[in-house]
Amino acid sequence: MIALGQGEEANAKSCFQNARDYFGKQLVEHPNDPAVLSNLSIANAGAGRKEDALREARLVVELVPMSRDTVDGMMYANVLAQLCAWVGEGEAALDQLARLVKLPGGPNYGQLRFDSVWDNIRATPRFQEIMERASHPPEYE
User: What's the domain count of the chain?
Assistant: First the structure.
């Protein structure tokens, strides 16, 4: 991620490929492990394997729903939203964010405003509305 942020795309792609190889081996030993799948989804996104990344991130959200684990479930749902934004699935990212921003532990205003992962969707009116919502306290049910 650092190489990508520094504009070193060839180095970043190589690092993501190495990460894919590593987490792919881990997945054989630990099938359906949410942490392994989540990391593999990020590596796949960085390696340009959009469909694999989205499939794995969605599986993690199914394996660890917020109704079962509010902390890790929120984290994995947020990773899915970030991956969607990163790989060009802006509407899916916005749909996920609109739901998450209302909840305790969801993305906050600062994260939405400054994290570069949202750059692809930041200028959209819907993102601006979500960011405005994030500037208010979460809704507790």
Answer: 1
Q: What is the CATH number of the domain that holds 50?
A: 1.25.40
pLDDT tens digits in sequence order for the chain, 141 residues long: 888 888 898 999 999 999 999 999 999 999 999 999 999 999 999 999 999 999 999 999 999 999 999 999 999 999 999 999 999 999 999 999 999 998 888 899 999 999 989 999 999 999 999 999 999 876 666
DSSP string, 19-44: HHHHHHHHHHHSTT-HHHHHHHHHHH
**Prediction pTM value:** 0.90
Look at residue 93 and tell me if it is in a domain.
Answer: no
In a domain, residue 105? The reply is no
